């Protein structure tokens, strides 16, 4: 299956990459791969197919395009500002791959290889939230998390394609568009969009 | 009436008045339509179960009061540094209209949560509350409000992502057990199904759902967003966030427990909630003692009370469930009253710093309402919180859950001390010398009335166990 190595590489790029555009491309690759996996299940019913088509366009075209347009107005935010060195980020990606496989052994469910891949994407998205200090990285991580959940749904509940698509996409897109609205306001204070600028509230 | 129409009504009630020219008519229409939207859930009496109806009633009451509070004169003047005067002097699609549209969307989303009969729709409703409230939390536009909204958005989105994965795993198990796809995530269908001995996957699924919904409920250790968001939002929004949004997340936990037994993970789910509940009570109460800002203290108090509800659910007995429900109702109304009163106080004295509230009792209605709400939250009679906490303790004794109960009682004691310290400060001492701001009487009537009705609800909630509704 050619999709698996592509997903593994794209997931690793989310963590290891240091440019916002690279992370965005990695996310789009993930979303396309997830779409390829869920498409057969969605094709069986008109409603599921319609939901699948609309959400795919939103995920791989609209959301990335909106982020790119924003990025053009904020050149200082093109660096993801990683808080870990590159070797450590690569090690983290490898460790997450192993953890994904281990989690499947514990869960003891069917279709284990595909589920391991899905959990790997979820873990990469969560790691991306932690290893980059750019707020845009957190938005891309939310989108990647939505993709990971879509993959989980394709494996765990293939009989519910529209529910899976609707749920996973809604969460990710809500995060993206509201998040961009908030980021625009933050950019007026901190053009670097560094998460350190959001640490006034404590205790 | 169609449930979808009932759910959509608050949003329509918020949007329609914006089409009218500014003035008193628009203001009255906004309150009138909100009142109709608040009554509509009663038409679903035959379609919903008692749990859904009770939560729908709480949501409708408090959301209507929040709209009324926000409609009062001068509310937006304070929020926007006197940029906008009367809320209905602003043009359609101004910040004021957007505020009411988001408030209506928030209300609709919460109704969707409690009227759904499937986890997918419930989950979409809870996600939609994030859509509506993230901008409301950031409404003031200041840097701390943006920070609070960002944390809220990221942490809740990730938490709800976990809940969705858990739900997918539940669907996997129920589909494998023979349920039809359409029924695979309906709690009534799952609860009626014969036990499914699913082992570790069921425990993982339930754990993910509990973690996800507990994040939205603000239970420790997933609570980091709550004190920031609830303290930085405008007062009526804080009242709704603490009074009903947290309750909606707790409602999702009620429903999760309903299916955990069928999946063979009932004991695991109860133990998890016992642990999260006890931890939330003691950590939040300890942090309440060191707070210097009243809104932040009230936000931590919400974490404490969410912990009390989780603890009661964790006992896994009918008495525990009734105690949890009573506490949701009484805390929701009392906390909304407290946040509404803080909004009035903030307007009157220009601060929410605890040190600046001395002698507030003598300053007028706002101080008295705040004192009443704080007394309600401490758990003293005749307020519902008193009955709720007492019932939780009795349920804990009956369930022999001694360790979590002991931790909880210590935490409740600490929380009492933190709130009593503020209440005594408000009742005693000389009033601060800061001159009250000039506010027209319109705001005082609408906003004070909303706070007073919420406080009355906190007293009325005590009647629930004797109402016959839950026998």
Mind explaining what this structure looks like?
The complex is a heterodimer of chains A (about 200) and B (about 475). Chain A is mainly alpha-helical and about 200 residues long. Chain A has one domain (about 5-200). Helices cover about 75% and strands about 0% of the residues of chain A. Chain A is built from seven helices and no strands. Chain A has helices at about 5-15, 20-40, 45-75, 85-105, 110-130, 135-155, 160-185. In chain A, α1 runs parallel beside α5 (about 110-130) and α3 runs parallel beside α7. Chain A is globular. Chain A starts with a helix and ends in a 16-residue tail after the last helix. The mean pLDDT of chain A is about 85. Chain B is mainly alpha-helical and about 475 residues long. Chain B is about 70% helix and about 0% strand. Chain B contains 18 helices and no strands. The longest helix of chain B has about 35 residues, at about 145-175. Chain B is globular, with a radius of gyration of 21 Å. In chain B, about 65% of the residues are buried. The model of chain B is unreliable at about 80-90 (pLDDT under 50). The interface of A and B includes residues 129, 142, 163 and 182 of A.
